[in-house]
Amino acid sequence: MSDAPFHRVLAMTELPHSGEETGRYSGEIDATWTIGPKVHGGTMVASSAAAAATWLRTVDPSQAEMAPIAASSDFLGAPEPGKVEYAVTLRKKGRQISLVDVELQQNGRTCVRTAFTFGYLDDEAPSWTDESLIADFPAEPTADALSYDDDSPMGKIVHVGQGSHLAIDTTTARFLKGETGTPRVRLWIRPLPGDEVNARARAAFAMMAADISPPVPMNLGHFGWSPTVQMTTFLRRVPAPGWLRVIAHANTVGQRMFDEEHLVIDSTGAVVAQSRQLALIPAGS
């Protein structure tokens, strides 16, 4: 396992800024939180959310209990692991909803631009949920699940598995056996113990997990880099400690683009995060 825990991604150092509505922070994203050589998209959304929340609490401490319930992210570039900066702008401050924009920057270039909606998370049991979603999805990895450890084919590419417990359901990831199937994949992911004790860190981890699946068109034989064009992430509640179950699927896989949705479910069976993204089919596939 890595010595770069997830909560370090959320650490912010305030930088000089101008005006009462705009703040600046520096942070660092370790190479653990990468896919191949580039920083993992969900990690950048989660770290940007931490910058937005830090600035909102600074501007108005009365809004400290608000959380980033929605994030709309545009990916302009793929930063390298290491030092990054966050330019944070408060767009609206309200009693129920506040809006904060964040630009994640590296070497003077904006790499990710995210518009955050802050509000109050659900903290009671849902009045209804579709239990069929996890009817056949065990709460913890099965014996035939493939762990993303350093020696596994997936772990050598998805380094996020070094900073978390991460495993993929081999019955759905047909591409692992050289087979084709439905563009739908299931995974399990859990924070390391030091990242699981804090509720805010668990919530941010759930946001990150809403982008953890390999591109599901791999089940159709489309391999290679699938750059995300735009992603919207929802945070519904703070997850209970334990394993998170992730279901990723596509509705339509086109010739140029595909959509991919993630559903993140905690150990109690509650939906804690969701995402929908538009991404490009790998070139030459």
Automatic annotation (TrEMBL):
InterPro entries: ACOT8-like_C, Acyl-CoA_hotdog, HotDog_dom_sf, Sec_Metab_Biosynth-Assoc, TesB_ACOT8-like_N. Residues 30-119 form the Acyl-CoA thioesterase-like N-terminal HotDog domain. Coiled coil: none annotated. It holds the Pfam family 4HBT_3C. It comes from the Bacteria. Residues 156-281 form the Acyl-CoA thioesterase-like C-terminal domain. This is Thioesterase family protein. The lineage of its organism: Bacteria, Bacillati, Actinomycetota, Actinomycetes, Mycobacteriales.
